[in-house]
Design brief:
5-stranded antiparallel sheet; Uridine Diphospho-n-acetylenolpyruvylglucosamine Reductase, domain 3; 14 helices; alpha+beta; 18 strands
């Protein structure tokens, strides 16, 4: 529960709010991701949704700086006007939670705080790979600037990497600088119809062994494909996404077929149709509200994905789909599963060499069950030390990721 809500207009206001405040402080952007992480008890909320807009943008130098409260949709639009993009294709996960994102839009600061990366992550890299600068205010009210406008090596703390995925526990992010890339002139998706999970994953691995550089690779079982309006039909779909100049793309589209199952029925989706399907995969459309089932995000070796999912479905029921060539699994057990299925999900993920994050569950469950992967003693000590360094009084989003941190 939180009391007063502070909505600063500038980064200087954020400094004042933290310096002058007393007690625990919840840090939010748009507020649409409040259901992600452990519930926290805070005396007040620092809501950063009024820190919006482009601070600096150099299309020729391929970098952009946004204020942290800038809606993700606005950031995408600003880049699209110059035919550029955030290469890691960040998802909008606010619609996973009750209200369907009604608390507020996805923001750039939220993308960084939660380290959100979309389907292109498998080919191009993650959010932290493209974050080259970050301004934030630590728990003592000190304004801190990390990184700059170019990619370079650093010594000491790499503050951009520390703030990415810290869920506001080290500081309130006020501005972020990203490396950007051009939008490809054309894209195409090859959709293999009717493969089971194992055959679908094998096809995706084969596509990535080819020299034709897929941008995305996902497998949608039939029950998932039926929930996506942009999907071409209701059968299982195994998807390989390519992009580039039209002449090169036409050649690669044909050549990569030699790496795919010869008996497979293949549909071709181009440009807008392809982009719409991948946007649904990116934003986890099959599990968006009003679906209220628990939701897990599992990471493992791509080849281990089908067996891991089969094990979970056998033990718990539910439904799942695969991104990142099978290395990312979105799994929803049935509503009412004890502890959201954690006693089964986590050991199964560990046995497959992976880990699991509880992305959605009732507040009481998130208070009782580890939401994020439990840390080993040495890593927990390091994490606690970083928290003490940047937030010595433990005021910022206390316990959002781990109890007592």
């Amino acid at each position: 529960m939180t009391g007063a809500i502070f909505r600063p207009e500038t980064a200087a206001d954020v400094v004042d709010a933290i310096r002058d405040g007393q007690g625990p402080l919840a840090i939010e952007g748009g507020g649409g991701l409040k259901g992600l992480g452990r519930p926290i008890q805070a005396a007040a909320t620092l809501k950063l949704d009024r820190l919006t807009g482009v601070v600096e943008y150099s299309p020729t130098e391929l970098y952009v700086t946004f204020q942290a409260g800038t809606p993700l949709a606005d950031a995408r639009q600003a880049l699209a006007e110059k035919r550029q993009r955030l290469p890691f294709d960040p998802p909008d996960l606010t619609r996973l939670y009750q209200g369907g994102g009604a608390d507020g839009p996805a923001t750039i600061g939220g993308v960084v705080a939660a380290a959100l990366s979309g389907p292109a992550r498998v080919a191009l890299g993650a959010a932290r790979d493209y974050l080259i600068g970050a301004n934030f205010v630590d728990g003592s009210g000190n304004p801190i600037r990390g990184g700059g406008k170019v990619m370079k090596n650093v010594t000491g703390y790499d503050l951009c990497k520390l703030t990415t995925g810290a869920f506001g526990s080290l500081g309130a992010i006020t501005a972020t600088t990203f490396k950007v890339l051009p939008v490809a002139p054309a894209e195409v998706t090859l959709a293999l119809v009717g493969l089971d999970d194992a055959a679908g994953q094998a096809a995706l691995s084969a596509a990535f062994r080819s020299p034709f550089e897929p941008l995305g690779a996902a497998h949608l079982p039939a029950d998932i494909a039926r929930l996506i309006d942009a999907a071409p039909g209701e059968d299982a779909l195994t998807l390989v996404r390519l992009e580039g100049f039209p002449e090169s793309l036409a050649y690669r589209e044909q050549a990569i077929r030699a790496y795919l199952p010869k008996q497979a029925d293949i549909l071709v989706l181009k440009d807008e149709a392809s982009a719409a399907l991948w946007a649904a995969i990116r934003d986890v459309a099959p599990f968006q509200a009003p679906d209220d089932r628990p939701l897990w995000r599992l990471s493992t070796a791509p080849t281990a994905g089908p067996a891991l999912t089969a094990k979970l479905k056998s033990a718990l029921g539910g439904s799942a789909y695969f991104d990142w060539a099978g290395g990312l699994i979105w799994f929803a057990p049935p509503t009412g599963a004890a502890d959201a299925g954690a006693a089964i999900v986590r050991p199964a993920a560990h046995a497959a060499g992976g880990h699991a994050t509880l992305m959605r569950a009732p507040e009481a469950t998130r208070a009782a069950v580890d939401v994020f992967e439990p840390l080993s003693a040495p890593i927990l000590k390091l994490t606690s030390g970083l928290k003490a360094q940047f937030d010595p009084k433990g005021r910022l989003n206390p316990g959002r990721m781990y109890a007592g941190v």
